[in-house]
Design goal:
Distance between the termini: 49 Å
Helix content: 40-55%
Bound molecules: S-adenosylmethionine
Number of strands: 7
Structural class: alpha/beta
Strand order of the largest sheet: 3-2-1-4-5-7-6
Number of helices: 11
Largest sheet: 7 strands, mixed
CATH topology of the largest domain: Rossmann fold
Shape: globular
Length: about 270
């Protein structure tokens, strides 16, 4: 077995990373062996995985999430109140969604009032955001595809989607390895609070990704304040970062701002270049 294969096996055997999409483990193993010798590569790969995945998923207690879903199953045919109660509890497990809870309903109402109701939504690096589907007001027939790199989370989301009963699906997929087929078909792509995490894995990837996505609308967001209310110049920093990319690619956009998150909505058909 080559060194990359050995690093991959170690990651796959580790308690913390065994549930990460295998493509991601292969990619990070490759990243590590390109930079470090065999001895240090496993440690470097684990550090990188902690930075881009572990830091988010550590606080997430998947058993507690399953508990909520089991409660729904035990409720026979759960109604909307039951879904929403379970989903609110679940979304508190991940900082990104927890921070969005106070304004998520307003955000989706504002968003779809501006861009119209989509037919197909692709939520890239979704985290727990798919649990907010009942607040999106999607209506019948709308497809929603959620993508992230944790197999347990994707299974939990699919269980939840089964209860919701729409055309919704979650898939374990590494968007730095390739884009899913739906990237060609969706009319709205969500990239919520995700670009900084992708940049930590592949510097310069945001520009390439935005260029490659063919959706009519891209909804890109950044945190502007942490949960403790500290801003530390975050909004200004991300604003400069994303505007430079839009400028380079000649993309027009409009902005929507809420308590702790700023959304940039790009209409690819309305480029200014
Ligand atoms: C800050 S969280 C954002 C979660 C969600 N979009 C939200 O705003 O609620 C970043 C997410 O990116 C996911 N992620 C990181 N690298 C990824 C990759 N290469 N492909 C797909 N998802 C990835 C992580 O697992 C994590 O759930």
């Amino acid at each position: 077995m080559d060194i990359k294969g050995m690093v991959f096996q170690e990651l796959k055997a580790s308690k913390k990373y065994r549930y990460v999409c295998e493509d991601t483990l292969q990619r990070i193993a490759g990243w590590a062996v390109e930079r470090y010798d065999a001895k240090k590569a496993v440690k470097a790969a684990k550090n990188k995985l902690h930075q881009v995945y572990g830091a988010y998923f550590e606080k997430m207690n998947i058993d507690k999430i399953r508990e909520q879903l089991d409660k729904l199953a035990g409720a026979g045919t759960p109604d909307e109140t039951a879904f929403k109660t379970a989903a609110l509890t679940i979304m508190k497990h991940h900082t990104s969604t927890a921070e969005r809870l106070p304004f998520m309903e307003q955000f989706y109402a504002d968003l779809f009032a501006r861009i119209g109701k989509p037919r197909k939504i692709l939520d890239l690096a979704c985290g727990l955001n798919p649990f907010s589907v009942p607040w999106m007001g999607l209506g019948p027939g709308v497809e929603y595809i959620a993508i992230d790199i944790d197999t347990r989370l994707m299974a939990a989301i699919n269980t939840y989607f089964k209860y919701l009963g729409g055309s919704y699906i979650a898939r374990c997929w590494d968007i730095l390895v390739s884009l899913p087929q739906e990237a060609e078909e969706a009319d709205v792509v969500f990239l919520l609070k995700t670009l900084p995490c992708l940049e930590q894995q592949d510097k310069g990837i945001s520009e390439k990704l935005i260029k490659a996505l063919k959706a009519k609308y891209m909804v890109i967001s950044f945190p502007s304040k942490s949960l403790t209310g500290k801003s530390r110049g975050m909004a200004g920093h991300y604003n400069r970062f994303i505007l430079e990319i839009f400028d380079k690619l000649g993309l027009g956009h409009f902005k929507m701002e809420y308590a702790n998150e700023v959304f940039y909505i790009v209409n690819s058909n309305n480029s200014c270049g």
